[in-house]
Please model this.
Amino acid sequence: MQEGLVIPIFIWSPEEEAPWAPGAASRWWLHHSLAALERMLRTRGSRLIIRQGKTTSVLKELLETTRAAAVYWNRRYEPAVIERDTVLKKSLTQTGVKTESFNGALLYEPWDLKTQAGHPFQVFTPFWNACQNQPEPPVSKENKNHPPSPRTWPASDPLEKLKLLPALDGAKKFSSCWVPGEGGAQAQLKQFLEERLSLYPHERNRPDHEGSSRLSPHLHFGEISPRQVWQAIKRKAARGAERGLFLGAETYLREIGWREFAHHLLYHFPQTPQDPLRPAFKNFPWLKNKIALKRWQQGQTGYPIVDAGLRQLGATGWMHNRVRMIVGSFLVKDLLLPWQEGARWFWDTLVDADLANNTLGWQWIAGCGADAAPYYRIFNPVLQGEKFDPEGHYVRQWVPELKRLPASAIHKPWELSSRPAGYPTPIVDHSLARTHALAALKQVSK
Model:
């Protein structure tokens, strides 16, 4: 192969990522992200080669066909992928192929940040302070001169052969909510900078408002990098004279920091997607209740803010972050069901399902992870709804059975003399469930 020619390749090999191969909603996003990448490459005189199979075998066959001398990729940090890429690099290097991987997903590498004692961080604030003391993360400039392509291309499987589009309830609606691909990511970032950044500290916890960036799936699929977002936020804040813009930038970049922290923990504690970081929680007296779990998954718990969140998830493949905390707390502390059940459900239904973020979030709310919420922090779903959805607009949007209720009753409809038709009574009494949870949590938190 002539030096300087570039062949973009995507290999679909989900069995190599087990047990955390992409879930149904993620596969939907991946299909459309790959389609967008194909279109973009063709406008630049290139194309995307799609293959299925074991990564090492597919690459070796392509190397032999194309006589390519090097393979490059951006690093990922899931335990199974690290193991695969380590074997891949060793195997290709032994055959004389140059291999090189790059950081395209994080601000800083997980192994570059350590405590003064040389250990991984397990508390966010000192971790974030260490990040801020690092040199400014670099951003690669776009190369306007696109690399040349070969005259003869290797065979490619059609995207449809991967069968990524699932028979998923609500999947058709996803297309009205999202625009996967680099173009969609840049448009989403621009909208956030222009319309929401200055209000972000006040609006980010309001599910009834459009206050979040909605960049999470774009970041997960590499359609935009956190370094690009970081620099864009910094530039916007530097140009803005208003204090709100500065505070918005500061608050949002801290959220990027939480994303970094999640990957830091996953890299250093690869067992945490399935096991609690705090060993005492292995003995927690979780319940087994398939009926309660199913009602939670379907948004039929009888608590409006919880049900609204889970129905939003089913319809859009996404859930507002504040509501993720509320529904998570309800699962593990009101229903006393294992956090791993919630993590698995989110993994299959979120378009932004990210192993690091998913693990951090669920272990945080369960109280068994790094920098975890205190065991006595149990979200009251009524008070949370009244505080963050005060007029009930979010609940009315996703729980139409309650759309005619006044704001004063919408988060506690069971108190009405006439129960709303079609809406279930609460699956548990929150005050009693809280008492039971505190007793159990206190035992493992000693």
Remarks:
- The first strand starts at residue 9 and ends at 12.
- The chain is about 50% helix and 5% strand.
